[in-house]
User: Which sequence fits this backbone?
């Protein structure tokens, strides 16, 4: 049984599920999200609740809903919210993203976030068990299904912010625009300045006008391997 860990000194406490480990991807995404004027947020595939937890820690005005199909991860997400005193501002729902129309009302949220499975069905090395396979691959929710769910949940003008792999950026943009979400902001994540990007952070707007802003890359490590100032800020190490 995992124990609560302190994410940083005097920061939130978090207990992680066996197959949904705390990842840098989720921490970077939580920092990238623009929370100005956001009151109601939604995490598609919330796992143990790390993104919702970090967003709630950033904004006292925010309420979150998390949707997760894995029952054990849902139970841990409930524990994480209760342990940090956020259970009054966060609802965790156990259910399938593909059933979003049955579970929620259209246009109910200002913000949708997601750290989704990265790999299409049939690509890469298959995980040895079903829970890990669901976390890595799109067997239970494709990129198109994810974007359609986000578009349904968002009010007009609401934002969809997610992290994904760079090689799927073209697919991601196509899925977003076909769902009525216009890509508006993009930031590449690189280990070092000379490294090829490994991840991409993207924000889209439901019903938004065309026009994409590409921001300077997020560099995680200096040439000597030490953490950059921005990386330390994100992890509260400054």
Assistant:
């Amino acid at each position: 049984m995992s124990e609560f860990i302190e994410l940083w000194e005097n920061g939130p406490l978090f207990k992680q599920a066996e197959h949904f480990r705390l990842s840098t991807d989720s921490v970077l995404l939580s920092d990238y999200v623009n929370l100005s004027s956001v009151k109601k947020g939604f995490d598609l595939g919330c796992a143990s609740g790390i993104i919702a937890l970090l967003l709630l820690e950033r904004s006292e005005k925010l309420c979150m809903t998390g949707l997760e199909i894995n029952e054990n991860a849902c139970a841990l997400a409930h524990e994480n919210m209760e342990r940090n005193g956020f259970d009054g501002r966060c609802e965790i729902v156990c259910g399938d993203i593909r059933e979003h129309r049955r579970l929620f009302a259209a246009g109910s949220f200002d913000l949708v976030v997601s750290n989704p499975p990265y790999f299409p069905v049939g690509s890469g090395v298959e995980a040895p068990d079903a829970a890990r396979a669901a976390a890595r691959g799109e067997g239970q929710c494709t990129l198109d299904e994810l974007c359609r769910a986000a578009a349904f949940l968002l009010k007009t003008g609401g934002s969809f912010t997610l992290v994904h792999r760079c090689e799927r950026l073209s697919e991601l943009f196509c899925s977003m625009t076909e769902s009525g979400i216009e890509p508006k902001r993009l930031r590449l994540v690189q280990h070092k300045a000379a490294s090829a990007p490994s991840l991409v952070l993207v924000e889209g707007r439901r019903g938004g006008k065309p026009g994409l802003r590409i921001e300077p890359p997020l560099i995680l490590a200096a040439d000597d391997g030490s953490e950059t100032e921005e990386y330390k800020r994100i992890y509260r190490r400054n």
Q: What stands out?
A: The first helix runs from residue 24 to 32. The first strand starts at residue 5 and ends at 6. The helical segments are 24-32, 50-58, 71-83, 100-103, 130-136, 143-153, 169-178, 229-234.
